[in-house]
Amino acid sequence: MKNLIVANWKLNPTTQKEAKSLFEKIKKGVSRIKNAEVIICPPFVYLPLFKGLTLGAQNCFFGEKGAFTGEISASILKDLKIEYVIIGHSERREYFGETDEVVNKKIKKVLQTGLKVIFCIGETAEERDAGKKTEVLERQLREGLKGITKEEIKKIVVAYEPVWAIGTGNNCSVDETMSSVLFIRKVISTIYNRGIADNTRILYGGSVKSDNSGSYIKNAGANGLLVGGASLNAEEFNKIVKSAE
Ligand code: PEP
Asked: Of all protein residues, whose CA lies closest to atom 8 belonging to ligand 1?
């Protein structure tokens, strides 16, 4: 199983020129990488501009088509040859009111359309301080995966992203990440079975930089990384990819 490094550009950069330049620099930098898979998730409008690396979208709607102003469907993404869609990112949950139920509908739609899902889960600082981390992770997993079959789960990558670690510079320790990754595998094994749990890729995300990235893969049992801020700097991102080889 190759490690997976996902670049989530969020709402960046502002111009096509910057987006193309960043993409080309990353593409050049990772061209010799053999043992890690790289996925670039830019804002929707830049997706058709890029060729040569696997692409993912940062979100999509659960409906197919029609009167849904402002939305993008999984079918539109499929037509653009996009392979992955990030679903359930904490910023979608926090700023756009996405509930576990909405996340579940989106996951189903993306899978039915034939794309793969990067399914984000993670506890907030308040939930962690209240000792509710595992309860939250289990609820997000069980609700998000409701009705997802043993065949379909093979098309899902789970990203463990503690909300308090995202964009804060306060990355989760390797030990804590390891225990969360183990817990996530345990829940997946309870929902499905041990074999499926062992074969599900679980990523870590939250203030990953090139000086901490390798340890999540080597010591925390993560099968890759979801990188936000650091993916906007090609040199830094390429170092992160190299550390995951
Ligand atoms: C993210 O956007 O999922 C993320 C992990 O961001 P950052 O790397 O900036 O913390």
From this structure: 228
Catalytic residue check, 152? no
Q: Give me 23's structure tokens.
A: 């993409």
For strands 156-160 and 36-41, give the pairing.
unpaired
Q: Is the pLDDT of residue 55 over 90?
A: yes
Confidence category of residue 1, pLDDT binned at 50, 70, 90: confident
The pLDDT value recorded for residue 202 is 98
Whether 138 is catalytic: no
Span from the CA of 65 to the centroid of ligand 1 (angstroms): 30
How far is the CA of 92 from the CAs of 88, 101, 120, 186, 233, in angstroms?
6, 13, 10, 26, 23
90 CA: nearest ligand 1 atom: 3
Q: How many other CB atoms are found less than 10 A from the CB of residue 108?
A: 20
